[in-house]
Inverse folding.
């Protein structure tokens, strides 16, 4: 932890690996949130729920 | 000569405000016990997690402010709360951005919800300033390094006269008082706006959009 993070340098893109990993995790979380079913909500349930 | 009093509260601004609030924000909208079916999605959890993280940020920040820099640098409990504050902020920002992505792809500014979107954007911007002043308030070499590097960029914008990143007292005051109050008020306003208009229906679901006139 007490040293500078490694950096990905690809063309004009310069980003630290921790930030790159975090963005990757966020994208995975976002896709999972869209695709995974919500508990208590079967697909096709058109009723209003509390 | 005759006196006519039709309605005692008719011209009172407090009564007018009360009537407007009753009309635009009835209790069933403010504290609904049922939500439309489309709210049953993980995407809507992002905003809730953001609020939960903000609560932890404020609680841990209050404890840090009470005990001070020596405590948060040197004691075990202080370091724990320092870390709790830092990681709560990380969770706050990660889920605020995920919430932003979700609302962007749902075009959540539809059907009169543009003010809600704009308040969210302002909250995001104010949060960035709060995080920046937080990094400057750490009371360590890291904070000094960030301040010295940031001063030229900040001063080049012309706001250095009243936002001096080398002035610890100013940065700390903003971080523990004005900015948290600002974010809390904005988040509260954002929630009330969502309650006023209801959660945005899926794109193209016109029938759902008319549920209870929302």
């Amino acid at each position: 932890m007490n040293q500078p993070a490694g950096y990905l340098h690809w063309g004009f893109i310069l980003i630290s690996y921790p930030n790159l990993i975090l963005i990757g995790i966020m994208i995975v979380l976002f896709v999972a949130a869209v695709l995974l079913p919500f508990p208590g909500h079967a697909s096709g349930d058109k009723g209003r729920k509390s | 000569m005759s006196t006519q009093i039709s309605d005692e509260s008719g011209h009172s601004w407090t009564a007018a405000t009360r009537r407007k609030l009753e009309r635009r924000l009835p209790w069933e909208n403010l504290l609904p016990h049922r939500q439309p079916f489309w709210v049953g999605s993980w995407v809507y959890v992002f905003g809730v997690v953001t609020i939960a993280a903000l609560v932890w940020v404020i609680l841990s920040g209050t404890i840090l402010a009470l005990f001070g820099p020596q405590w948060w640098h040197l004691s075990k409990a202080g370091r724990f709360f320092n870390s709790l504050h830092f990681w709560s902020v990380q969770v706050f920002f990660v889920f605020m951005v995920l919430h932003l992505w979700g609302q962007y792809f749902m075009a959540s500014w539809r059907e009169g919800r543009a003010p809600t979107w704009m308040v969210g954007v302002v909250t995001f911007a104010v949060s960035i300033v709060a995080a920046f002043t937080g990094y400057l308030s750490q009371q360590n070499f890291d904070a000094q390094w960030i301040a010295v590097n940031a001063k030229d960029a900040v001063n080049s914008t012309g706001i250095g006269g009243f936002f001096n990143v080398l002035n610890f007292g100013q940065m700390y005051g903003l971080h523990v008082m004005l900015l948290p109050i600002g974010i809390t008020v904005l988040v509260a306003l954002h929630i009330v706006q969502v309650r006023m208009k209801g959660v945005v229906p899926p794109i193209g679901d016109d029938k759902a959009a008319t549920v209870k006139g929302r």
Summary: The domain at 111-200 of chain B is CATH 1.20.810.10 (Cytochrome Bc1 Complex; Chain C).
